[in-house]
Amino acid sequence: MPVSRTNNFERSRIRDRVLQLFLISIAALALVYPTTGWSQEAVMATVNGSDGYAISGSTGSTAGGDKVTTVLKPGDLFIARELSYGEKDWEVYLKSGVTGVIPHNRIRVLPGEPLMKLNYTGSKESWRKLQFKTGTLAEAADSARGRGINYYKILTQASEGDLKAMARFFSLYQYMDGGAAEQYYPETWELLHVVGDDTFAKFLSGQRAKVRDRISGTFSSTGDTEPISKPKPYIKRYFPKSYSILFGR
Fold it and tell me: I need a labelling partner for 15 at 20 to 30 A (CA). Which of 26, 30, 67, 239 fits?
């Protein structure tokens, strides 16, 4: 028996209503959970309380640095970012370059305190060691190795201020997607810190406009500049020459 136009209309109305309710639910979730962990704004903080806090962490390399334990003393300053999972502990970035997690009740936020400059000297040491590793590597390095490229050798040379190696490293973007991209782009951010403003600005000055545009796009993305959620003011403060080339036009 053929279905009547009335029945078709009723089914269509029900589908529309279900879709409407689904969209309302999504909007409600967005209000309750407005941000993910990586998009939480970084702030300066210190230890809450009169005693120190022992933190187990690692160096700042996205490739995985050495495990270390250090003690934070009251008055020590560091960058902190509230995590969105569990009990909302805080991820902290220390002046020494160590990254770890501190319970929320041991954090005292310092409103208005300018963010300090991140320290990625541990990353350079990790890259130097990893260029000689023959086993399984992180996805970006494996992706490059599949094309006959020693990812960490190029990155190590770039970290030492070799402008040709820097250009080669930034050209690897064409091989990076998925998990490889999640490692590669943050390591371009680390490289900026390792080589410093003068060297990076010199590198940028020798690149074509489309290369500079691609880098400025990366350094405008909070997903690639963790833990800095507002990268442009941060870059302007600590890398003024590079900022002028990337964003001052």
Answer: 30
DSSP 113: P
Dump pLDDT digits (tens) for 191-245.
999 999 999 999 999 999 999 999 999 999 888 999 999 999 999 999 999 999 9
CA separation for the pair 183, 191 (Å, rounded): 12
The answer to whether the CB of 43 falls within 8 A of the CB of 80 is: yes
Which pTM was predicted?
Answer: 0.80
Question: Scanning the structure block, which residue is given the tokens 């028996």?
Answer: 1
Q: Tens digit of pLDDT for each residue in 2-17?
A: 444 444 444 444 455 5
Contacts of 173 (CB under 8 A, 6+ apart): 184, 185, 214
Q: So where are the chain's domains?
A: 38-109, 121-247
Bridge-partner residues for 64, per DSSP?
none
3-class SS at 5? helix
Q: 79-89, pLDDT tens digit by residue?
A: 999 987 656 79
Give per-residue burial for 164-196: e unless 16+ CB within 10 Å, then b: ebbeebbebbebbeeebbbbbbbbbbbbbbbbe
The type of residue at 61 is: S
For domain 38-109, give the CATH number.
2.30.30.40
Sheet of 53-59, strand order:
67-72, 53-59, 98-102, 90-94, 78-82, 43-47, 107-109
Q: How far is CA 34 from CA 10, 11, 16, 114, in A?
A: 36, 34, 26, 24
